[in-house]
Each structure stands twice: as C-alpha cells, then as structure tokens.
Write a structure and sequence with these properties.
Growth Hormone, Chain: A
Length: 182
C-alpha cells in the first residue's frame, strides 16, 4: 500500500508542473488530474470483486505492472503531449486502486479480527506518510533530475509490488502455482 501511494503521489504531484512546461491550459491540466482520480476510484468495486475471487498475489502483481506501465508512459511523454500524460496518470490511478484494495485485503486477512483495526490504522499511517514524503521529494527530484527520471524510478519502485507478491508464493511451494490464494 505504501509503495503504491508513494509512486502515485510522487508522479501526480509534479505532473501539473510538467504539463505547464508544455504550455497546457489550466483546464486541460485539471482534466488530466480529474481523470487520474477517476482511475483511482471508479474501478474500485470491480477491483474488490476481483480480490474476492482471484489470488491476492495476482492482483498485487497487476498493481505493480499497471503502476510501472503508467509511470513509464508518463516518463516517456513530452510535456506537450496531454494524451500521453493522461494515459500514464490514468494507469497510475488504476494501479493505485489495485494496490490499495489488494494490500488492504491481504493485510486484514493476515491478522486475527481483534488486531485488524489497529494494524489497518498503522498501515494507513504508513501509507499516508510515504505519500507525504514522496510528494515533497518529487519536487526535489525533478529539480535535481527531471520529470522523466522521477517517473522512471517511481515505475521501477512499483515493480517491488510484483516481487512482494510473487516471492512468498514461489518460496512456499518451490514454484509458482497455477491457482493459489496468496
């Protein structure tokens, strides 16, 4: 959850500046950010349904891959290309949804009922803190490097979700199973 939040916030925070460098009107920038937020929340019921029916490791893997593709799309998009920025940010929003819902489900399933609220609260704090750090750091990183560099390395960080999803499944059985709740 914290990784998904950090990736999303880091890129979303500086995207309006990136688009402003491309001379986009404020309305276009606002539309891109609004559609990013649609990606974050619109598909949540579908993602929840998927989490209930598919291996959690699969959904967490989808989160990492979707965040990575979105971040790389943003990374390779010039500031003048609003369509490319939109696609990247929309995918980051959808990937964030996958990460939040699968992460919450995995977290709460890992603890007894009497500990879940406290654990979820601690996880939420960690998630929000990682987003705050990423938001502040993103400006510093863009100033020192570039929007492209920030987006690229955020995408690489998103791949850690894939490793986190696959590693326990593979080490538990010695190989990746075809279907296993993870």
């Amino acid at each position: 959850m914290a990784v998904g939040q950090a990736v999303m916030v880091a890129i979303m925070t500086v995207t309006p500046l990136h688009m402003d460098d491309g001379r986009h009107e404020t309305q276009i920038i606002g539309l891109v950010i609004s559609l990013h937020i649609v990606g974050m929340y619109f598909f949540a019921p579908i993602v929840g349904w998927l989490v209930d029916r598919l291996p959690t490791a699969l959904i967490l893997t989808a989160a990492g891959i979707t965040l990575f593709i979105g971040a790389e799309t943003a990374s390779h998009t010039d500031p003048e290309d609003s369509a490319g920025v939109f696609v990247g940010l929309f995918l980051i929003g959808v990937g964030w949804s996958f990460a939040m819902i699968s992460g919450s489900a995995l977290l709460t399933a890992s603890f007894p009922a009497h500990q879940r609220a406290a654990v979820q609260g601690a996880a939420d704090f960690t998630m929000v803190f990682s987003g705050a750090v990423a938001g502040v750091a993103s400006g510093v990183i863009v100033e020192a490097s570039s929007y492209h560099g920030l987006s690229h390395w955020a995408g690489v960080a998103a791949l850690s979700l894939v490793a986190a999803a696959v590693y326990p499944v593979v080490t538990r059985t010695g190989r990746a199973p075809a279907t296993a709740r993870g």
